[in-house]
From TrEMBL:
Highest classification ranks of the organism: Bacteria, Pseudomonadati, Pseudomonadota, Alphaproteobacteria, Rhodobacterales
Native species: Salipiger aestuarii
InterPro entries: Amidase_Cbmase, Bact_exopeptidase_dim_dom, Peptidase_M20, Peptidase_M20_dimer
Free-text remark on how the cofactor is bound: Binds 2 Zn(2+) ions per subunit.
Entry protein name: N-carbamoyl-L-amino-acid hydrolase
Sequence positions that bind Zn(2+) 2: D97, E132, H385
GO terms, molecular function: hydrolase activity, acting on carbon-nitrogen (but not peptide) bonds, in linear amidines; metal ion binding
UniProt family annotation: Belongs to the peptidase M20 family.
Segments forming domain Peptidase M20 dimerisation: 214-312
Cofactor: Zn(2+)
Keywords annotated in UniProt: Hydrolase, Metal-binding, Zinc
Domain of life: Bacteria
């Protein structure tokens, strides 16, 4: 009987896989630039497929480009347990965000093979396409289509900054599958991830037992002013879209601070046009990101930001259009699966605490169609979406071992 101390993964093999994957799409400061549907993404997918082939997994790819790698169960009628995350990164991303979840899931399967473990339910290691949303907004695009939240046509029409569409780029890199999106049925879904925040490290905990994920709105603002010479246009005759943007940024900070505790807001992307030193911008596009685990607070923040932004722009004479390009409501993860994660941490002797995920994950959309939850491990100084992102071998192993045990609890070991 495989129990107790035998239920461990190979931490060195997991770490070596993480480091080998990080060689694909290197950044400029030690991290990765492996954005979705780039040549680097295609190379990462090919390497992942090779490893899955070696582990005896069979591949399915859906029409959004998500990879599903299946280890059979003993019961042909049992629904699969899905485990995974994503291999795409931010333009200046780290080596672990998303990648740990995919390769931790693969390591769980490799360890099942090593230990001769059979499960009643199949295990499906999953690499979701375009989780980051850095190149094609919104984030978690493929899992949103899978859950029926967005249409495939809408997803295919998303464009990057060069005007290239998701659908065309998916075909170009050769990873558009034949499988209809969302037809698969899940028994459960687990996702391992780095915390992307400082709480676990600050509290000295090995494992985050994720009970909820906060909701978010991405609001894309397009402000329209009038291009004019910065030196010869009188101050009282300007229609300055940049000034309106600056006041909106300050207002977003005020709204988020007034909603404390349990709320955040900020701006991470902006574009000036024509973006010249001596020309007032005729157009400014930027995205406001607001999040909260409290639905009423989240919706209230959005309403206040939109109302106050309209007033700011009207005062300056700037046009203001707001497009909600990303959204999901706060998520409560399945209590039974959360309990399995907590039990696994306790059995392995890892310190743990409950967490609410501050970031969005594919698990948030998977939770719309099946019981789902997440396992988190610390990251150094809480830094993520940054090439300085770092974790330790021990944290990676702890997270993967908890994932391994929790998945086996749900997939049911066959003696």
């Amino acid at each position: 009987m495989v129990t107790g101390e035998n239920l461990r993964i190979d931490g060195d093999r997991l770490w070596d896989s993480l480091m080998e994957m990080a060689r694909i799409g290197p950044g400029i400061a030690g991290g990765n630039n492996r954005q979705t549907l780039t040549d680097e993404d295609a190379e990462a997918r090919a390497l992942f497929k090779t490893w899955c082939d070696e582990a005896g997994l069979s591949m399915g790819v859906d029409q959004m480009g998500t990879m599903f790698m299946t280890r059979p169960g003993t019961d042909p009628d049992a629904l699969p347990v899905y485990v995974g995350s994503h291999l795409d990164t931010q333009p200046t991303g780290g080596k672990y965000d998303g990648v740990l979840g995919v390769l931790g899931a693969l390591e769980a399967v490799r360890s099942m093979n090593d230990l001769g473990i059979k499960t009643k339910h199949p295990i499906v290691v999953t690499n979701w396409a375009n989780e980051e949303g850095a190149r094609f907004a919104p984030a978690m695009l493929a899992s949103a289509v899978f859950a029926g939240v967005l249409t495939q046509d809408h997803a295919y029409s998303r464009t990057d900054l060069d005007g290239k569409t998701y659908g065309d780029e998916l075909k170009r890199i050769g990873w558009k599958g034949d499988e209809e999106v969302g037809t698969r049925k899940m028994h459960a879904y687990y996702e391992l991830h780095i915390e992307q925040g400082p709480i676990l490290e600050a509290e000295g905990k090995d494992i985050g037992v994720v009970t909820h994920c906060q909701g978010l709105w991405w609001l894309e603002f397009t402000l329209t002013g009038r291009e004019a010479h910065t030196g010869s246009t009188p101050m009282d005759m300007r229609v300055n879209a940049g000034l309106a943007m600056a006041r909106i940024l300050e207002m977003v900070q005020e709204v988020a601070m007034a909603a404390q505790p349990g709320a955040v807001g900020g701006v991470g992307q902006m574009q000036f046009s024509p973006n010249s030193r001596n020309v007032l911008p005729g157009k400014v596009v930027f995205t406001v990101d607001i999040r909260s685990p409290d639905q009423a607070k989240l919706d209230g923040m959005r309403a206040e930001i939109e109302s106050r932004a309209a007033a700011i722009c009207a005062d300056i004479g700037v046009g203001c259009a707001i497009d909600p390009v990303g959204h999901f409501d706060p998520v409560t993860f399945a209590p039974e699966l959360v309990g399995n994660v907590r039990k696994a941490a306790e059995e392995l002797g890892y310190s743990h605490m409950n967490l609410i995920s501050g970031a969005g994950h594919d698990a948030c959309w998977a939770a719309q169609v099946a019981p789902a939850t997440m396992v988190m491990c610390p990251c150094v100084n809480g830094i993520s979406h940054n090439e300085a992102e770092e974790i330790s071998r021990e944290w990676a192993r702890a997270g993967a071992e908890v994932l391994f045990r929790a998945v086996l609890e749900t997939a049911e070991i066959v003696e």
